[in-house]
Design brief:
With about 500 residues, the protein is of the alpha/beta class. The chain has two domains: about 160 residues, 3-Layer(aba) Sandwich (Rossmann fold); about 290 residues, L-fucose Isomerase, Chain A, domain 3 (Alpha-Beta Barrel), CATH 3.20.14. About 35% of the residues lie in helices and about 20% in strands. It has 17 helices and 22 strands. A hairpin with an 8-residue loop joins β19 and β20. The longest helix is centred in the first third of the chain and has 21 residues.
């Protein structure tokens, strides 16, 4: 069956059990002894992910005068006093970077390196994710040795921010090109190598966003995600396998038979049912929240919220997706999963509908880069510089702090359940990612929300003014679903995609 022969929501299912091994799910006995924290609208947004560990190194040499010959290379570190001053300067700059970082960052003390042996000793330690070399001077063998133990490598050189560095002159010709015309670094670096984008001149703001991108990449690769009802791919049944092989994603399948039993056990828990009624009241009391569906749908959405969280907790996961969410789950839960997924996203989890692993990998990376909820959406046909994007699972705390106004309605296509129609302010900047099925090229662009309309489509819907060459988007669109996040993270996505061997096709930069 070809894509054009399928209706809009028909997926070719592929269970994660056949892709990622046996599912690690709790027993039914565990499910019947439910113990969960109460939902609280004031709970701070939790950004999941491990801190990025950075090892800074100052590479340098000092030289003694020799008569009637060149004895001193370029560079401003001439004495141990100069070195001590530079160490202090680097320490202050990195302390400021850590203070300003909006992502978990662990900055180790700066280490001084003068030769290959010292560099090898530092690089051989396995407790860092990034090697950051301040290449003031020193030989190429020592510089290469610094990078031998990491796939995330950065070089910082000075032009105006302090004493000029030797490698400001020769990083391109002597390190990246080895004295020739062609880049040579990838021939001896494995697996990621270095390129021109891994060298930072003077700018600690650039260093910051590149570290943010690496933080996203490091937390994305090897991600564990619960797949209720299996993993799928829109028009691409091999999408889960691609995600596993390219990104080492671990998909933990939970069959619907287990979920059905858990829902029934939860309904028999009078304390939990009463708690969900109270939580529904607290949710509907949030400022600018209007109820336009039946209240039991909202209460049942909170029941699902606790059960989905329980599955993640049992399996040490912070990401979740549900397959067949516009059919199978509804008679079991007597609601839709839309509001439930919105609640999880508002709390800081990564929660996606439709189990589409064409698009979920890009959403996981975008979340870890931005540290904000991601909105998986259906795009429309770009025209006149505008595109409409809509779905029924939009988070309300898209900025990771504040609840946007929302109308709690039925899911559009079933006219059933509880779904938030989230309205975002005009002028809100967004980054959009449109991935291809093979995870080879991701199209991206930035834009601004010009309207939160009310068409007869999925409830949360936004007309977006596209930055850049919107006509190119017509030619380059891929897949079916997109991911959206508030703010401009196009630089970080470009840099992280390079590390992941994905082409970042930024429409807004054309």
């Amino acid at each position: 069956m070809c894509c054009h022969e399928m209706n809009r929501r028909q997926f070719i299912g592929l269970t994660a059990a056949g892709v990622a091994g046996a599912g690690l799910v709790a027993s039914d006995a565990e499910a019947q002894s439910f113990q969960g924290e109460q939902w609280d609208p004031q709970i701070p947004f939790k950004r999941w992910g491990k801190p990025l560990r950075v090892q800074p190194v100052l590479l340098y040499n000092t030289h003694k005068p020799r008569a009637q010959t060149s004895w001193r290379p370029w560079g401003g570190l001439h004495s141990q006093d100069d070195v001590a001053e530079e160490m202090n300067r680097i320490g202050k700059e990195l302390s400021d970077v850590k203070k300003r970082a909006d992502f978990p960052l662990q900055m180790y003390p700066v280490v001084k390196v003068q030769n290959k042996e010292q560099a090898t000793a530092v690089a051989s330690k396995s407790d860092h994710d990034v090697m950051l070399v301040y290449a003031a001077s020193g030989g190429g063998d020592a510089l290469e040795a610094c990078y031998a133990g990491s796939s995330n490598n950065l070089m910082f050189v000075r032009h105006r921010s302090g004493p000029v560095y030797l490698w400001y002159e020769i990083a391109h010709c002597r390190f990246l090109r080895k004295g020739g015309d062609a880049f040579q670094v990838d021939e001896y670096r494995d697996p990621a190598g270095m390129d021109v984008h891994d060298v930072v001149v003077d700018d600690t703001r650039e260093l910051m966003w590149k570290l943010r991108a690496i933080h996203g990449k490091e937390n994305f690769v090897g991600k564990k995600i619960i797949t209720l009802g299996g993993a799928s791919g829109w028009c691409c049944p091999q999408a889960p396998l691609v995600g596993k092989e390219k990104f080492a994603l671990e998909m933990i399948n939970v069959p619907y038979e287990i979920m059905a039993r858990r829902i029934q056990a939860a309904r028999n828990d009078k304390k939990l049912v009463s708690q969900c009624k109270q939580e529904a009241t607290r949710y509907l009391d949030i400022l600018d929240t209007e109820l336009e569906t039946e209240r039991p749908f909202v209460e049942n959405a909170f029941l699902l919220y606790h059960l989905f969280k329980q599955l993640m907790t049992e399996n040490d996961a912070d990401a979740f997706t549900i397959n067949h969410c516009m059919g199978t789950i509804m008679p079991m839960a007597e609601t839709t999963a839309c509001l439930t997924l919105s609640l999880l996203n508002d709390e800081g989890y990564m929660a996606f509908c439709e189990s589409d692993f064409n698009v979920i990998p890009s959403g996981l990376l975008l979340y870890h880069i931005a540290g904000k909820p991601v909105f998986l959406n259906d795009p429309t046909y770009p025209h006149h510089g505008c595109v409409t994007c809509a779905h029924c699972t939009a988070p309300r705390r898209m900025d990771a702090e504040n609840y946007a106004p929302a109308r709690i309605m039925t899911h559009f296509e079933s006219d059933y359940g509880a779904t938030p129609k989230v309205n975002l302010p005009k002028g809100t900047q967004v980054t959009m990612v449109c991935p291809d099925a093979g995870q080879k090229t991701w199209v991206g662009f930035t834009g601004k929300i010009v309207e939160s309309p009310f068409y007869d489509i999925c409830r949360s819907q936004y007309d977006i003014e596209i930055d850049g060459n919107w006509r190119k988007l017509l030619q380059d669109m891929r897949g079916f679903h997109w991911n959206m996040v508030l703010g401009d993270y196009s630089r970080e996505m470009d840099y992280a995609c390079r590390k992941l061997k994905i082409e970042w096709n930024n429409i807004s930069a054309v």
